[in-house]
Structure formats: C-alpha cells, structure tokens
Amino acid sequence: MKLSRILASFAAVIALVGTTVACIEALDLNKMVSKTDACIRGTVTNVHTGLSVVNDTTEPRIFTFVTIEGENLYTGKTETMEMAFMGGTHQGVTQTFTTMPAAADYRVGNKVVAFSSKVEGWGTVDRCLYAGYGGIYREISTPKGDVVLGRGADFAIEHNIKLSDLKVNISKALEAKKAQK
User: Fold this and answer.
1) What is 144-163 written as a DSSP string?
2) If I label 31, which of 5, 9, 123, 136 is the partner at 20 to 30 A Cα–Cα?
3) pLDDT tens by residue, 84-108
4) Residues 139, 70: contact at Cβ < 8 Å?
C-alpha cells in the first residue's frame, strides 16, 4: 500500500518536471538571432521594477526593467535600450520566476550582451529580455581582449567567446535570418 502511494507520488513529480522542462526552449545563436530584433552590448546603466498587467491575468505582475547603453550588434549603431523580464521586488513584494536572470548578471555598471525583442500582451512593457536568464551574458576584459561568458549547452552563447568572434558569428546568423525570409 505504501509502495503504491510512493510510486504514484513519484509519477506525479516526474509528470510535473517533464511539463516544466518542455516549457524551456533550447536556443543556439542562430535561433536566438532569428527570434530577436536587437542584441545590445554595453553597460547596465539603470535597473528598476514596476507593475504591469499581463493579458492572461487581472493581477499585476512585477517586472524588472534593465537599461543598457552601448552598441546594437545587429545594426552597429549606438543605442540605449530598456528591456524587461518578469519578476523582481517592488515596494517590498517579491515575485520570482524560474527564467529570471541572477541579480549579479544585471547590476548597474556590468558590461553585458543582451538579446531583446518587442513583446505584446505584457501591458505597459513593450520590450523584453528574450529568454530571461538565457538572454543576458556578462562580459569581462582580459589581456587578450573582451570575452563574453557562455552558459553551456542549449544557450545562445554556449562557451566563453571573444567579443570579436561573437560579432562575426552574429553577422553570420543575421545573414542566415535574411536568407530564410
């Protein structure tokens, strides 16, 4: 009797985990570029939170807004862009989502590469950090040049990569995106 309950509980957990995993999309660089309209490489200059009502609910959700000043790697132009992701702390209330980036990734002053796209249905939010923690990558300076830190398999930037090499790879991905249209 106890064994059947344990097995039933185990099966329920596996079903729940299987459903959760299915919601996370693996995105190599080509897929990320095909789904976004901007990739900003620059410095985080502002972070704040706010409330917005998403189309599928009547309760406001907390969003964290990150402003990055730098170069749009898709256009080569200097830009300041604000993008948001669900979650954060606003007026003492915290909402967390599994796709939120770590706070260390978007601190003011950090050098980052962030993929973004316009979004609909997020109320007052019009631009998102695409794929949450899978859309923002920290950059570090080394004696051999700037390096963007990879996140592992199934991420747009899998391995640590020199910024110059990433720019070449993004150019190739943009060409592939144009060829698909």
Assistant:
1) TEEEEPP--TTSSS-S-EEH
2) 123
3) 999 999 999 999 999 999 999 999 9
4) no
